[in-house]
Structure formats: C-alpha cells, structure tokens
Amino acid sequence: xxxxxxxxxxxxxxxxxxxxxxxxxxxxxxxxxxxxxxxxxxxxxxxxxxxxxxxxxxxxxxxxxxxxxxxxxxxxxxxxxxxxxxxxxxxxxxxxxxxxxxxxxxxxxxxxxxxxxxxxxxxxxxxxxxxxxxxxxxxxxxxxxxxxxxxxxxxxxxxxxxxxxxxxxxxxxxxxxxxxxxxxxxxxxxxxxxxxxxxxxxxxxxxxxxxxxxxxxxxxxxxxxxxxxxxxxxxxxxxxxxxxxxxxxxxxxxxxxxxxxxxxxxxxxxxxxxxxxxxxxxxxxxxxxxxxxxxxxxxxxxxxxxxxxxxxxxxxxxxxxxxxxxxxxxxxxxxxxxxxxxxxxxxxxxxxxxxxxxxxxxxxxxxxxxxxxxxxxxxxxxxxxxxxxxxxxxxxxxxxxxxxxxxxxxxxxxxxxxxxxxxxxxxxxxxxxxxxxxxxxxxxxxxxxxxxxxxxxxxxxxxxxxxxxxxxxxxxxxxxxxxxxxxxxxxxxxxxxxxxxxxxxxxxxxxxxxxxxxxxxxxxxxxxxxxxxxx
Length: 535
Ligand code: SAM
Ligand code: SF4
Fold this sequence. Notes:
The chain is of the alpha/beta class. The strands form 6 sheets. Strands 2, 3, 4, 5, 6, 7 and 8 form a 7-stranded mixed β-sheet that branches. Strands 19-20-21-23-22 form a 5-stranded mixed β-barrel. Helix 8 (229-241) runs parallel beside helix 10 and helix 16 (404-417) packs parallel to helix 18. The longest helix has 26 residues, at 445-470. The structure holds S-adenosylmethionine and iron/sulfur cluster.
C-alpha cells in the first residue's frame, strides 16, 4: 500500500512540475533559466583572516542574471567579513534574490518567506532581506506586506547592502531601490564556488530599454547599460586561467551591447567603473599574457565596442574557451554577429532568439518591434551564414486578445524554424506593465493552458526530431561531470547546446573536450561513445 501511495505521490509531483504550472521549460540544457537551480543557496570558501563570525545565507530565483547577481552580493558581503552557510536556520543574515517575471515566480518567494518566519521566531536577531526584481517592484510596500522582512534592496543598490544591514542591526528597517544609469559592478569579481568549475555566467550589461508590453524587467532592472569591455575580457581570462572552459555572456538583449568610451566621461566620479587598463594590468601583472588579444582589445575599446567586437575579444582569449551568449533580440541581431560566430570555432553555434508569437498583430501588441516576416528574415540569415546553428526560443501563449488563428501562426512559425529547445509560458499579467495598463487579460486560463499544451507538444516533436538528425554524427563535447542517472557515465554539451551522455573512460575528465559519436537519442539526450584521439 505504501509503495502504491508513494508511486501516486511521485506521479502527482511529476504532473505538478511538468504540466500544472504556467511555465514549461522543456528539454532545455541551456542553463540561463534552470529550473533545477531555483532556490539554490550559494556557498563560498571562507577567506582566512576576514571572517567576522557572522553567517550569510543567500538563495536565488529566476534567470541566470539573478544567480550571477547573488555572486556579486556574496562577494560584497564576504569583503565585510561574512561567511556563507547553506543552513538558513543558523544564519545571521538571510537574503532571497527574487524574480517577478510571472506571478507564480513571486508566489514561490512569498511561500519561502513563510519558512523564514519560523526560523526568525527561534532566532529574533536574524536579518531577513529581499533582493532583486520583487524588491524593486514592491519597494517599501514589501515591509508592510511581509512583516518579517528587514531589508529591501533593488538590483542596482547591492554596494549599499553592508550599510543597510548595519541600519537593521541598529534597530531600523532599511530600503534602497534606487535604479542607476551606470552601475554595472564591473570591478567586482564574483566568487564562484558551488559551480562545477567549468561553466560560468558573465554579465555584460544590465537593464533593458525595450519595453515589451508584457514585461516587468524594464521596471525592475532599469535602463540598459553596457559593462566596460576590458573588465569582461579580464574576468573571462581569469576564469579560463582558473580552469573554466565555457563562459556565457549575459544580457537581456546582448545585441544592443554598446560601449562608447567617450560617453563614460560623463559619469559621476563614484560610479565610474574601474577602467579597463587597470583591470587588464591586474591580469597581466598576475603573469598572464593576452598576446594579440591585448593589443586588439585596446584598439577596439578606443573605437567603441559592439557586441560583435566583444564576442571576438572574448573568443580570442583561447580557442579552448567556449563562448556562449544569451539573450538575442530579433530586432537587433546583426549579420556582423553571425559572421563573427562563423569565424571562431569556439563561439558556440547556438542562438536563443525568442519569438514570443508568430503573428504580426500580436507582436505589435507585445511591442516587440518586429513582424513575423522580419523574424523569418533573421532565421534565413542565420541559416545562410551558419547553416549548422541551433536555434531556441521563448513563446507566450494566450496574450491579450490572441485569437485561435493567431495562435496557429505561432505553431506554424515553430514548424518553420523547428527549434532545438523552447521556454514556453502562459501569459501572466504583471502590474504596471504597458499590457496591464492598455489591454484586457481576456484569454480564459483554460484556453491559455490548452494553447500552451499544443505549443509544448509541438516543441517536444521538434526537439526529438533535431536530436534524431544528429544520430550518426560526431559531436565535440565539453565534459561537465557525471550524468544525473549514473556515475558510470559522463554528461556534457555539444556546440549546439544539446546534452550528450557517454561512458566514463580512461584519459578524459570533466573540463576536457572529447569527440563523441552519437549512437542514439532519447527525447532530451544524445547518447554515444568517445572516439579515441589519434596521437
Ligand atoms: N530579454 C529576453 C527577451 O527579450 O527575450 C527575455 C527576458 S524574460 C526574463 C524571459 C522570457 O519570459 C521572455 O522571453 C518571455 O517569453 C517570458 N515572459 C516575460 N514576461 C512574461 C509574462 N508577463 N508572462 C509570461 N511570460 C513572460
Ligand atoms: Fe523584457 Fe522585452 Fe527587455 Fe526581454 S527585451 S527583458 S522581454 S522588455
């Protein structure tokens, strides 16, 4: 009986995680929004001589940008003597880095805060802080709505955290949700300790200027600003020297990355990022030789740097360093970027190009600023310049006034592109967005859900089809660790971002590249064997 109950419970959990929520991240090895990492606590190695005896617990939700921000926060507080813990019940400061993108993301955080309340009753001195997008959206209202919260800090105010915690220690509540036009945390090297030591995310810009009508990001993360390029090259070089073999350059719209050295002179003194020369010199003085990269990087910085230039600068660090990026915007992705991808073997042939809808009227309502034809033109350009490139996407179903025919246009767009992966969502109205102000959220939940189901079924078909096309080919795979199912197998990802599993063997280890012959596939994974390298 117990076994049957257990099986039913497991099936229920499976259904809930896979079908009942309004987000479906299907078959996605792309880690930019990894369901498996939601709520993950960050752990740093203690720094000798720094610890002041206070313990920090920090957990994160949402996209990779948030996880990357938590590393910045942890670095700032570690400088002030905090040591991290993975047990919130014994922490002095508990921080939760939040996501506002859909309503269920916020609900998840509210539920988690209830668990912190119980811990705080036992440990009344505990400081509880809310960071990130929910903090920015709700501001001081958070303090009224969630009585246990002591500190509310928006994404551009993390440098102020030590001071805000001091204020709480003095018996006050503290809020800083000021958005900045300059802050990029360029000079803070995040500490990455519970990563696998192979893949790292590097933020290249913050904020977004696009104002898609459904999206809360421009309100919670502020205006778009690009991080100084040499600080990015320096961080990636440092990661490579510490053994990392893959960097993913992160931004809400990486194609509009633009560094203009002249514009930086206008900044307030205290907000000026550490200039690239300083950082470059720091890397060089630690014994690194960037060779031609250094000269070229310096030249390019003087001229002003586009995303295509930046991609090239990072790719030149070493042919052994894989470079990925996310997210591309269909209105901004240029042929220059595609040609740069083509020119460097170590820039992965994979583009995440969110379509959202396949219908021009809906795209207009969404304020995406491209049409169906424009999107198709970009797909054609990718196919022409990089025929082997894998493409993935984001889709929203049931946006305001979307008709059945318009939904069919999304399905037909999916048929046309045959995406490798997709993140699929039901539209969730977010307070304060253009859509919430202008349009009625008038598609019944059941219809949104039905459309989502159809989109998911279609994507499942295409993901499987894409993997089947790779059976019988040889793929270069970066080994990331043991497979989830067995420590007799390694798991890694191909250039096109698909998961590849193969037997552990002599002579190759995590962090190394191997050529794997693909023998078969499941709906989400390619399975193969390593082709021994000829000496
Ligand atoms: N900047 C990226 C872009 O433009 O594609 C993505 C940013 S957003 C964090 C990730 C995805 O969440 C979006 O592409 C969209 O599909 C989805 N999303 C954003 N707001 C949403 C909403 N209100 N309801 C449902 N899905 C939403
Ligand atoms: Fe949101 Fe659009 Fe900006 Fe992406 S590009 S973060 S969807 S406003």
